[in-house]
Amino acid sequence: MYIKSFKELIVWQKSIYLVQEVYRFTEEFPQEERYGLVSQMRRAAVSIPSNIAEGSRRKDLPEYLHFLRIADASSAELETQIVIAKRLYPKLLHAAVETLLDEVQRMLYGMLAALQTKMSNNRQNVKKQNREV
Q1: What would the pLDDT profile of 29-88 be if each residue is shown by its tens digit?
Q2: At what angle do helices 37-56 and 10-27 cross, to 10 degrees?
Q3: Where are the domains of the chain?
Q4: Cα–Cα distances in angstroms (integers) from residue 115 to residues 58, 62, 112, 118, 123, in the given order
Q5: Which of 21, 28, 62, 98 has the most crowded CB, counting CB atoms within 10 A?
Q6: What is the pLDDT of residue 119?
Q7: How many CB atoms lie within 10 A of CB 18?
Q8: CATH architecture of the domain with residue range 6-132
């Protein structure tokens, strides 16, 4: 199946929902966090779909993988910030953000694994063709 646009990728769509949930979640933070944890969490969340989109527009597989790895790293950053937020503000409802983040991370992991396998197979095919020539 050929994907015409990154907008068709379920992982991109879910990560957009994740951004929305992070914004909702962080609206409940105390005002003094506006330029601290709130800003950090929102930036990390926005980075995930942004890098998925940018990577999908790259012309070769290694570049695409690079941007997916950045998206994955941003998800780990957000995961850490959620842990911090839960410890600082235990009364805030965090389940929706955690659930969506887990889904996005699993999808990114699967996508990375599949594309790395594809890249490895492509390299092996090129080596095989070179030996046959």
Answers
A1: 999 998 999 999 999 999 999 999 999 998 889 999 999 999 999 999 999 999 999 999
A2: 170
A3: 6-132
A4: 14, 9, 5, 5, 12
A5: 21
A6: 83
A7: 25
A8: Up-down Bundle (1.20)
Q: Are 94 and 82 in contact (CB under 8 A)?
A: yes
CA distance 5 to 7: 5
Q: Of 9, 15, 12, which is closest to residue 44 (Cα–Cα)?
A: 15
Q: pTM for the whole thing?
A: 0.88
The sign of the torsion formed by the CA atoms of 20, 1, 106, 73 equals: negative
pLDDT at residue 9 is higher than 70? yes
Residue % of the chain over a pLDDT of 70: 89
